[in-house]
Fold each of these.
Amino acid sequence: MGTRRLAAAAAAGIVLALGLAACGSEVEDTDADEYGSSGASSVRLPVAGPAGHSKPRARDLGIAPGVLPAGRMDAITDVPGVRVGHSTVIRGDNVRTGVTAIVPHSGNVFQDQVAGAVYVGNAFGKLAGSTQVNELGTIETPIVLTNTLAVGTAVDAVVRYTLAQPGNEKVRSVNALVGETNDGELNDIRSLPVTTADVLAAIRTASTGPVAEGSVGAGTGTMCFGWKCGIGTSSRKVPGGYAVGVLAQTNFGGNLTIGGVPIFRSLQPPPAPTPPGGSCMLVVATDAPIDARDLSRLAARAIFGLARTGSEYSNGSGDYAIAFTTSPQMRTHFGDTTARARRVLPPDAMSPFFEAALEATEEAVYNSLFQATPITSRAGTAAAIPIDRVRALLHR
C-alpha cells in the first residue's frame, strides 16, 4: 500500500476513535490496566450504544420476519436476567476487533449453572468448551465471542473471572465457553491485540437493556455478504409467556436476501477486503424450562435461520449456535448430588420455540447489517450497506 493510502487509513482510524469518544465511548490506555500488554490506546463502546445513533433497525424499515411478536427491546436481553457487554478495540490504523460477552444471569454462573447445548452447522471454527457443554448439558461461565486468535486469551480471562468469584475458592476446573469468527481482513489479527482486560471489561460491564449492534465488540472487524456487519440481536414472544432471544456475530458470505427479496441481484458491495468463507456465531437464550436435548434442537433452528438471509454455509464458514435457558427449574447447582423434581416442557411443545429461533435469527442478521458503520483500516474500507437503496428495493 502506498504512503498516501497508509496516511489516509491512519487518519481515518484517528477520526473514528475521536468520533467514538465524542459519542460517549471511553478511550483507554491499556498500559494502565493490570492485564493490558499492548501499550496503545483502545476504544470501548458502552453497551447501549452512542447517544444520537440514528441508523435504523430492521423494524424501522418495515422488516419484521415471521408471525411471532418481538419483545419490548427486540433483543436477547428480553429474556429476563440475560446481560450483554462489549469491549471494542480500535487502535492505530490496523487494529479493529473486540469482545462481546453474554452473561446468563446475575448470580454466580459456575455455582448456579444453566442448561445449555451447542449445535454445529459447520465445524470450521475454534469454539472452546463445546464438548463439555454437550456432554453435561450445562453452561458454567459467561459466553464470550471474539476473534479467532483471541480465543486463548478469552479462555484465560474467563477462567480468571470465574476463579475470582466469591464462593469459587475451591474450584479447580472451569469450562470457559468462547466462540469466534475471523476478522483478519480488517483487523491485524496476528498482532494479538485482545487482552485479558478487554475480555474482563466486556463481562463486568454487561447489562440488561438495549444492546449495541453493528460495528461493536466482537463485530468490530467482521463482514457479511461483502458489507460491514457485526453484532445483531432480536427476540420473540412465545405462547405461554416465554421469550426467545438471539444474538449474532456475523462474518459470512452468500447472496443477501431480505424478507425474501433477492437484494444481491440489484445491490452489490464495493470492492473490500472480504474474508473467504467467513463464519457466524449465534447465541440463543430463553426462559422456558427446556432440557439440554431440546436446547440442542433449538440451537439447530438458529443455524437453519441463516438460510433465510442468503448464507452460503461455505466450507470455510464456522457456523455454531449456543442455546441456554435461564429457567431456575433447569439449573444445576455445583456439587449437588441429590434428586429433585423439575417441570420440563416436552418435545411436543417445542414448535413455537423453533419458529421463534428462526425468526429472531433472521432479524438479528439484518440488524447486524443495518446498524453497522463503515470501518477503515490499513487493509481498506468495509462499507455499510446503503439503507436508502435497500428501502427502495424492498418497496419495488
Amino acid sequence: MSTKIDNYLVCMIFYNSKTMTPKVRNVRSKYVPEGIKILYEDRDIIVIDKSSGLLSVKARYEKEKTAHQLLINYVRKGNPKAKTNLFVVHRLDRETSGVMVFTKSYELREKFAAQWKNVEKKYLAVVQGNLAEKSGIIESYLAEKDDYMMSSVKTPEEGKLARTRYRVIKESKDYSLLEIDLLTGKKNQIRVHLSERGYPILGDLKYNENPQGRLALHALSIKFKHPFNKEEMVFETKIPDYFSNCFEIQDKDGDLPRKTKPFKGPKRAPKKEKKTGIKTKTQQGKC
C-alpha cells in the first residue's frame, strides 16, 4: 500500500486517541537482528515489529532463532556472558507479523499482566469472501484438541471465552480487509473465529487449505500504560507490502475511493528458484 493509504488507516483507527506515539530512541542498530525492527526501547521495555516467519518464543523444534532469544542477544550487546534478560509480555503466531512488547524485569511483566484487560490491540487481516455483516463481535468458547488445533465448543466447562471485534475496511471481488480488535487473547483466536464463519485468512494453512503466500494477519498497533511511569503509549507498525497485492488503491487526495479496483486473482507460479534459506519477495507469495 502507498504511504497515503498507510497514514489513512492509522489516522482512521486512532482518530479519537489523543495519545502520541513515542519516538524511537536508544536503539543500538549494530546489534539489531534480522527479522526485527525496534520501535522503542527504554530501561524498562522494548517494543518491536516482528516479521512473518519468526517464532515469538522457543518451541521444542526451535530455541535459538526466536524473537525472544534474538532480542536477549541484542540487549546483551552480543555478549553471551551478560546476565541481562527479557520477559515476554504476549506472543504472536509464527506467521503473524507486527508489534510485540517485552520487559526487562519480571516485576514489570507482572504489572503488564495486571493491566492486560485494558490494553488495546488492533490487527489487520485479509480474508476470503465478503462478509454479510460489515462489523460485529464474534464470541465463542475455545478449546485445544489433541492435535494442538483450536476450535469452538458449546459450554464454558469445555473451553475459554474468546471475543473478537471486527470491521470491514475494504472489499474487492473475492477478498476483504478487516480491522480487528482483540478483546481476549486466546491461542489462534482470530484465525479460528474467521475460519469457522467461512471467511478464512489468506495463507492460513492450519485452519484452511490455502497456499496463497504468507498468513495475511498483522498486529498493527498496541496501546497501553507504561508499567513504570504510567504514561499512555501507542505503537503503530507499517502495513506489510504483501497486503497491497490484494488491494490496488489509487487516490490523488490520499482518501480511500468508494470503489476498489477488482482483484483478478493470483499470478501464475514463478519458476523454481534455488533454495538459499531466505525467502525473496516473489517466494512470499501474492494474493
Amino acid sequence: MLAGLVVIALIATFPLVLHLTTCLPNDLGDPVLNAWILWWDATAIRNGFHNLWDAPTYFPYAHTLAYSDHLLGIAVFTAPLQWLTANPVLVYNLAFIASYASAGGGVYLLARLVTGRRDAAALAALIYAFSAFRVAHFAHVQWLMTGWLPLSLWALHRYFATGAWRYLLASGGLYVLQCFTANYFAYFGLLPLAAVAIAEVWRRRPPLRRTALHVIAVAVLAGLALAPIAHVYYRVRQENNFRRTPDEIERLSADVSDYLRGHNRIWLWRHARRGTGEHELFPGAVALVLAGVTLSTRRGRTTPYVGLYATVAATALVLSLGPHPSAWGHRATIPGPYKLLLDIVPGLDGLRAVSRMGLLVTLALSVLAAQGAVVLFDRLRLARGPVVVLLGAIIVAESWAVPVRTAFFDPIPDAGDRSAYEFLRQSPAGPVLELPFASDDEARQMTYQYLTLVHGHRTINGHSSYDPPLPRLLSGRDQCFGDSNHLGAAIGLVRALGARYVVVHRDGFDSPALEAALIEELENGQTVARNDFGRTVVFTLAGDDRPTDEGGPSHPIARTAMHARSSHAPDRLSLLFDGNRDSRWLSAGRQTGREWIEIELDGPRDVARLRMQTAERSFGDYPRELVIEAVEPEGLRTLFRGSVLPQFGRGFIVDHAYPFIDLVLPPNRAGVIRLRQVGVTDELFWSIHELELWERGVGGNRSTGAAP
C-alpha cells in the first residue's frame, strides 16, 4: 500500500520528481523556510540538540526557532538524509513525497480496523492522502505529514479492543509525534482522540480503574515529552506577546461554503476564484457520496463507529468556523463554541488558521466513506477490484493539479554572491545584516535566512509565522533603512546591536539614490573594511561607539523636583512619570519638527543622563532628530543633537520588549531641560512611555514623591 501511495504521489506531483534536487513545490516562501528549519534541526540533532532553539535568524532575539513550527517530528527521520546529501532541497522534497505515504498509510490502517476490509480502507487512504486540502497546503509540509494522527487513533482502538498497554503507549507516542510535526495538533488532535476514548469506553465497558491508570500514565508521559517544547513556546509567547489578533483568527476561520470549494490549481476547479490556501476545504465528491451512503442506509448507520466519526466530523466542522460562524458570508448572531474555547484554553489564541481543523473533517469523512464503500460493494455485488480502481481514479482526479507548480531555487546564482558568502564563511563569527531589507519581499527574506546555511553566521534578517518588531523597525517606511535621510543613524543602530557585517546587494534596490546614500554612509567612518564581489559588497562594521559617563556616579532626580510642559497633548504629560511602561505620552500627530517637552527643575542641577523608555508598540515613534537644551544661569546651551537610534539599540540589548534610550549629557547647571523634536515623518508620532532624569553626584534627592 505504501509503495502504491508513493507512486501515485510521484505522478500527482509531476514534474517535481524530475527536479528533486533543484526545485521546491509551490513557491519560494514557506517551502524555503521549512527546508531551512529541517536543515537547522538536523544540525542541532547532530550536536546533541545543543542550541536547538537559537536558530541563526532574527539576531539578537533568542529562541527564534520557536517563531515557527519546529518540525522535529519530521526532522528525526530526515536528519540522516541531511547529513548524507547536504542538500536541504532534496531532503524537503523527499519529505514532501513521503507525506502522502504517511497520511494514506495511517488512514488505511485505521479504516481497515474499522471496516475489516482492505478495498474500503484503500479508498479511505486515497481520500485522505489526495484531498483538496493538501493541494491548498502544498507549501506547508507540516500539514501534509499528517499520518501520525490516524495511526494514533488506530492504536487507541487497538488498546480498547485488546487491553494491551503497548497500544495505548503507542497511541500517546504517535500523538506526540504529530504534535512535534505541527504545533496545532497539540490542540486539534485531542478532539478525535477524546472522542474515540469516550466511545470505546461506552461501547466496551473496560475495567475503569485499570483504564484510568493506563490513560493517566500515558498522559503523563506525553506531557513530559511535550513539556520542554511547550515551555520554550510559552516563554517566547510571553516575552514577545505572540498572540493572534481577533481579526486574524476571524479571517482565517472557515465559512460553511468553504467545504464546497476546491483550490483553483486543481484542474476541476480551475475556473474557481483564486485560492487563499485556507478556505479550500472540499473533501471530495466520492468522500461525500460514500459517507452519505453510510449515514443514509440502515446497514450503514448500524456499522460500528459510524456515530463516533460522524460526531468528530460535525464537531470539527463547527469548530473550524471559528469564534463567529458564518455561512456564505452571513455571520451568526451568536458566538460559536470556538469562542468559548478561546476564552478558557491557554495558548489557543496563538493559533491563527482555525480553518485547518477542516483536516479533521476530511479524516473523519474518509473513515465514514470506507464504511459506505463496504455497504455499496455488498449491496451491488459488483466485482470489487474494478470498482475500487475506478473510484480511486476519481478520487485522485478530484485533486489533480498536474503539472504542479514548482519553483527553481538557487539561493546564490550570481558568481559575485557566491564569492561574498564564501568570504563570510571564512570570516570571524559575527551577526550579518543583508540589504536591501525588503520586508515585503518574502522570497528575498527567506533566501537571506536560508543563506545562514552557507555562511554560518547569525542574521538580523528573517521570516517566520511571527515577525518580531525589530525587523519591522529596521525595514519600515519612514524608519531606519527605509528613511534615506537618517541612514547613518540606522547603521549606528545595527552596530549598537552587535552586527559585524553588512552585505549590500547593489542590484536589489528599487531606488539607486537610496543605494548610493547607503554606500556613502557606510564608508563615512562606520566600517573598518570593504570587500567587493561584483555587485555585492561586504562591509565589516566598526564596533559600537558607546559613550562613557564622565563625572562619576549619578542618581535619579525625584519626580516632585520636576515640572513638565509640552507643545502637544499636555493632558498626557503625567503618563511620563506614572511608573507604567505601557502608558505613554504621544504627540498625537506626525512628527513635524515643532514638538517639544520642557522639564523645569527645582533649581540648577548637573543632569548627567536622560532616559526615555519605549515599548514594542512604539518602536517607530522615536524622535527622528532630537535636540536637548539646558537653560543655565549663563544662558541656553545645546547638550545633545542627533539621532537616538544607536542609544535605542543599546537599550534593546538590555530589554527588547521595553528598550530605554539613555542619552549621556555633558556637565551642566540646568534649571530647565528642553527636548525638541526637529525631524519630520510622513505619519508616525513621537511617543515616550517613561521619562527619567539623572543627576551627577552621590546622595539622595532633595525631594521625593509623585510628579505633578
